[in-house]
Design a protein that fits this description.
87 residues, mainly beta, 0% helix, globular
Length: 87
């Protein structure tokens, strides 16, 4: 049986984890529930998608984000990606 990959779906909650987290010492992982507002594959052939979400535990308070992500690993229960800042 083939393991289906995690499907990011609009209007659903997911867990967000950033490694190594934000700046400072020691640099600790960052965790937050996020509410996904938009998922848009960029169709570049490079595994890039645009993710729009509400980050509920952001240090400066609840905020909307829209980030381009490059998928590095995609399995049944998780998706690992690189944030493409300034692209």
């Amino acid at each position: 049986m083939v393991n289906a990959k995690l499907q990011l779906t609009r209007r659903h909650w997911y867990s967000w984890q950033m490694l190594p987290g934000y700046f400072g010492e020691p640099r600790v992982p960052y965790f937050s529930p996020i509410w996904v507002k938009e998922v848009t594959p960029r169709k570049t052939g490079k595994g890039i998608l645009t993710l729009g979400f509400i980050n509920t535990l952001y240090a400066e308070g609840v905020q909307d984000f829209t980030l381009d992500l490059r998928i590095l690993k995609h399995e049944g229960g998780y998706l690992v990606s690189e944030i493409l800042y300034g692209q």
